[in-house]
Amino acid sequence: MTTSPRDDDRLRAEAIAILRENDLGAYTIPTKGLYPFQWNWDSCLVALGLARIDEDRAFREIETLFAHQWEDGFVPHIVFHADAQSYFPGPDVWDTRRATPTSGITQPPVAGFCLRRLYETASDREAAAARTKALLPRIAAWHRWFHATRDPEATGLVAILHPWESGRDNSMDWDEALARVSPEGVGEYVRRDTSHVDAAQRPTKAEYDRYLRLVQIFRGLGWDHGALHEASPFKVVDPGFNAILIRSAEDLAALAEALDEPAIAEEAARHAAAGRAALEGLWHEGLGQYACFDRAAGALVESASIGGLLPLFALEPGHARAAVLAKRIETVCARARHPVPSHDPADPRFDRLRYWRGPLWLVANRMILDGLARHGHVDAATAIARDGLALVARRGFAEYFDPLDGRPLGGGRFSWTAAMVLEFLD
Ligand code: 9WN
């Protein structure tokens, strides 16, 4: 599918309008109603779009997120800046006791990757250097927090302790590990998401029960991050999440080099190298791609999700796995009409409508196409960007899309979809 120059102008104007209407001054909400707060990786990726409208505002988006970093280095997945009743679970459920309430779990650390792009494309070089330099120690502290609290045995790879941390909430990757979390005692609650979006496009009640049960367990430990890894019944090493951390460490090291912060550069380069070396242990020969490692069960997970394709975004150019992975992405995409399905359509569990169990997401595509371009597959990368633009031109700025017929799914007028459109129009 392609777009015309007129489509492109219309897309650009509409993307900017959406980013403006979801802009609450110092942060951007993902979409009205469904997600009325600041989300971690949404904000960093949205900053890429904001940078094309207003550089100052783009930096502000990331600065606002890091203004709510905890003293231990942790950066929350949600910052509850203002009251809103349209989302569950809200601040009272998390009960983290912060001055501005936040959640107690984190999200994929794309900040380093996004900040490098902001810095390198900024036209006001002096302002960009000063603001980037101020953020470097904060991102370094977050990465250090990951290695200390989520990799206590120094394997080089970090675990997520909640499916929401992955950003790919209901992926098949978590099915077995989540099934081992007993929902007993979770109590009654009222979901809000299914009053905004068709329940067939959202996680199930059985999943929500366990999502909440994990929150209750962590809350019971007073959100002491040093204690959660040991106590959590759910700990999974996700190749996608780790690829993002490794790539952000690489980008953090490059920024720190450029801005004369040698200690940060050295530490970040060390983290990236350790992660890359350990990634090899997540290669699943049978699936022909990377797979999650269930740290509680001690086994690789039989699940061919997009998480196992994301390492292309982090492997060094020339890495032996890169060509195999690029081919694998081609194979998975050939099984759908629109790239990149969040799960291999050949898997009987593939569900074209249900959130991260099949639908395509432009933010994931952004990272996949970056990986393809990084390893020399420029045409394949361009084809993914073009398809995304054509999809939005025809179906609107949806949260995610059916990869078989392009139907728009989830929330509408979505900030990160708008930001990715601005990225793909480049
Ligand atoms: C839980 C905001 C977030 C994204 C996630 C996406 C979804 C939240 C939810 O929405 O998750 O964090 O309630 O479903 O899965 O990637 O950051 O857009």
TrEMBL record:
<dbReference type="GO" id="GO:0006487">
    <property type="term" value="P:protein N-linked glycosylation"/>
</dbReference>
<keyword id="KW-0326">Glycosidase</keyword>
<dbReference type="InterPro" id="IPR008928">
    <property type="entry name" value="6-hairpin_glycosidase_sf"/>
</dbReference>
<dbReference type="InterPro" id="IPR054491">
    <property type="entry name" value="MGH1-like_GH"/>
</dbReference>
<protein>
    <recommendedName>
        <fullName>Mannosylglycerate hydrolase MGH1-like glycoside hydrolase domain-containing protein</fullName>
    </recommendedName>
</protein>
<keyword id="KW-0378">Hydrolase</keyword>
<dbReference type="InterPro" id="IPR004888">
    <property type="entry name" value="Glycoside_hydrolase_63"/>
</dbReference>
<feature type="domain" description="Mannosylglycerate hydrolase MGH1-like glycoside hydrolase">
    <location>
        <begin position="35"/>
        <end position="417"/>
    </location>
</feature>
<dbReference type="GO" id="GO:0004573">
    <property type="term" value="F:Glc3Man9GlcNAc2 oligosaccharide glucosidase activity"/>
</dbReference>
<dbReference type="GO" id="GO:0009311">
    <property type="term" value="P:oligosaccharide metabolic process"/>
</dbReference>
<dbReference type="Pfam" id="PF22422">
    <property type="entry name" value="MGH1-like_GH"/>
</dbReference>
<comment type="similarity">
    <text>Belongs to the glycosyl hydrolase 63 family.</text>
</comment>
<dbReference type="InterPro" id="IPR012341">
    <property type="entry name" value="6hp_glycosidase-like_sf"/>
</dbReference>
